[in-house]
Here is the input.
Amino acid sequence: MAGPTAYFNPANAETLDASTRALVDRRARVLGPAYRLFYEHPVQFVRGRGTKLWDAEGHEYLDVYNNVPSVGHSHPRVVAAIAEQAATLNTHTRYLQEGILDYSEDLLGTLPADIGTIMYTCTGSEAGDLALRIAKHATGGTGVIVTSNAYHGVTTEIAAISPSLGGVDSVAPWVRLVPAPATGVDFAAGVRAAIADLEANGIRPAALIVDTIFASDGVYPEVAGFGEAVAAVRAAGGLFIADEVQPGFGRLGTGMWGFDRHGLVPDIVTVGKPMGNGHPIAAVMARPEFIEAFGRDVRYFNTFGGNPVSIAAARATLDVVRDERLIDNARDVGAHLMAGLTTIASTHEAVGEIRGAGLFIGVELVADRGAVEPSAAPNEKLALAVVNGLRERRVLLSASGPDNNVLKVRPPLPFSYADADRFLGELDATLTEATAASTTTAAN
Amino acid sequence: MAGPTAYFNPANAETLDASTRALVDRRARVLGPAYRLFYEHPVQFVRGRGTKLWDAEGHEYLDVYNNVPSVGHSHPRVVAAIAEQAATLNTHTRYLQEGILDYSEDLLGTLPADIGTIMYTCTGSEAGDLALRIAKHATGGTGVIVTSNAYHGVTTEIAAISPSLGGVDSVAPWVRLVPAPATGVDFAAGVRAAIADLEANGIRPAALIVDTIFASDGVYPEVAGFGEAVAAVRAAGGLFIADEVQPGFGRLGTGMWGFDRHGLVPDIVTVGKPMGNGHPIAAVMARPEFIEAFGRDVRYFNTFGGNPVSIAAARATLDVVRDERLIDNARDVGAHLMAGLTTIASTHEAVGEIRGAGLFIGVELVADRGAVEPSAAPNEKLALAVVNGLRERRVLLSASGPDNNVLKVRPPLPFSYADADRFLGELDATLTEATAASTTTAAN
Here is the structure.
């Protein structure tokens, strides 16, 4: 089983203080082993606000990781919207509601005009699952093309197109993997080869689906041949599905959507995580003809999907993104972070490529940049040490990529310059410490 | 495509008043045809409380249909719990949280001791999808047995075991259908035949999954041969999954769970709709060994699943079920309803079998009970007229079953004796009207 970095290892339970250990033991018994915890020393939070979380002892943590509370933990406008709507009415979409129409029209207005229809779900997994159903229905195809370390969700169907899950969740026979768009990779060539392989096996392509920031592949903001790849899939009868669950809602600092940065218009778009700032709401948006055909032929009703409270949460979240100019903030503070990370790289040989857009930045850690460039060996061990070291300094971070060596800088969007400087200082110190520790270890 | 009763037909848009029509048109454009509306005259609610909903003109409706707001629309304790937790902290399960453990232990305590572990999702569909993944992983089998008009959800995998969806969503080749436990049906015989057919086709059974009140099949509280059916599946290497999304959390008036009424202990239990009184939370509970094995081999993380706000909603909902003695209320008011419905049947020849437990009652409408008993022809047309007639009288109801002729009486659990009497009176009047109308039509 592929293991992302920095999970707590239950075998180390005896290293924990008594009360943490008691919680960890209860958790293992009640929730089972799927419920993995972050960090060598798991952390328990009791309060959150903006870009900060607090533990039971009142210690403040800087959140450089969580993209779900996108407009900030417990944003008062989102909280008030949820509370007010829950106290008033929460039903389902088989009664008329005006709020869902107002919000839908507003949200669709942020996408290219071709994408005119929306269907609501509760999670990104459900959105991906529905998007694939729509694409297969529209095309008559079954083949799906994804990147080699893609993650799109956890339903049976979507786990089968998520090679990053690894292990027994190996991808389905109708899935083809293409290399992520790393430096020097021609994305279109990979996609054309995948199409040819599908067709050689008698499988008609239904869709190319990509996370437009390629988060689980290691964060790739630039994609050579993206437009040609999309054109090739369409020429083969398939659709282009943009998975905007991670990049969407302004995180990349250049507009609302990741696909916008590439000048592309998808056939289907999925959104999730940040949509309701933590409230379970997600959606599929598509060219009307696809949703029309699907809705005519297939019965689909999502009990909680698009209910008034979910819509109120999404409405307030979108309002805050605009009113607090969070896209501009993502652009500006993201640029400041990139500059600071580049400065850090100049004094830390283990820092490799730094890639990102807005407030989604990947920082590669490598064995020894100077010695082995350009194909520096991934340094998962150091990434693990840095993520755990930062946690001890009360800064929350994680790592991603097929080798778990890419630090994932992905804070709530109201991340300030002061937050950025605090993070950069702690990262610099942690890298110094972790590098010294590994040198000492090596010398012993 | 199988069509449940009483949906609005968009072809009749011109019969609507101008403002309703404007909403219906916007809705068709923005949400597409999957978003079907209830009733000939769709209704727009602006407020809910307890067993009542109000439209924009201030008219009060009695809710005899909605099982999701199980402890009553906008219950103040649930609303307060959501508001308070949302204002404090809403993260995910990779940090330690005590609330999720307290709630999980409490909830698991209401199930047989063998079922000791829980995993959280956001919807019943996700829960069913995860339950099947666990069952297939545990057994090595792929075959699934469901009832002939079963509905278990809308992910790709779960739609494939939901024959009630009909049309292009026909069941997968690894699915076998068995007759619902109507009077005279030996449920075990059907399941044994399904097992034999799977095995004859080289498909190893993974699970028998049933909604323990058989809601979409037409509501069947008594099941001849249920225990033998479960034993047969286990003997063939499969598991018994109880889908408690509809019957669970006390609706049947005889304890928390539908399977309890049959003296059975499932291997896996799925819960959803009423769990958080409308907040998107659902779960899979299972014998620990199955979740242990799955969690060891398969990566599964549900971003919103079991987050602190969802848990707070579920916590408050369960507290209200107990503190307001809603299971007793379901039993007592349910019995009162059954008696009242029986009285109504004595003066309406079109009322056939009345089946139910607690506040889940199915009322068959038939062509002419006197003439053709015991196999009275289902009367979908009358059911449609009754559901729409009740809506005009501001009483919300629906119909189910393979022939859409079973009135589904399934109100929020705080349904009072006064609510019951109001419903019974309106149903009696509506039946009289609808029968007279159909007689007049027939005479013309």
Q: What stands out?
A: The mean pLDDT of chain B is 94. The longest strand of chain B covers residues 205-211.
